[in-house]
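Data card: per-record layout.
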Amino acid sequence: MYRHGPSLANMAASLDRVSGGRVVLGLGAGWQSNEHLAYGIELPPAGERLDRFDEACSVITR
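The structure for this 62-residue chain is written out next.
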C-alpha cells in the first residue's frame, strides 16, 4: 500500500544488483490500520487489498 508496484520492483532490482544478489523482498496485502492512519493512507477492504496485491505481484515478478 505504501509504494507503487513498478517503483518497488525497480528499487528491489537496484538493491539486488548493488548487494550482489542478496535481496529478499517480502510482500503483503497490508493490514496494519494504525500504520495507514499514521501515514494518512486509506486502508481499503480486504478484497480490494488482495486484488491490488495480486496485481503488484504480477508486475514485480516480471
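Known properties of this structure: The mean pLDDT is 90. The helical segments are 5-18, 33-39, 46-61.

See the next section for split statistics.
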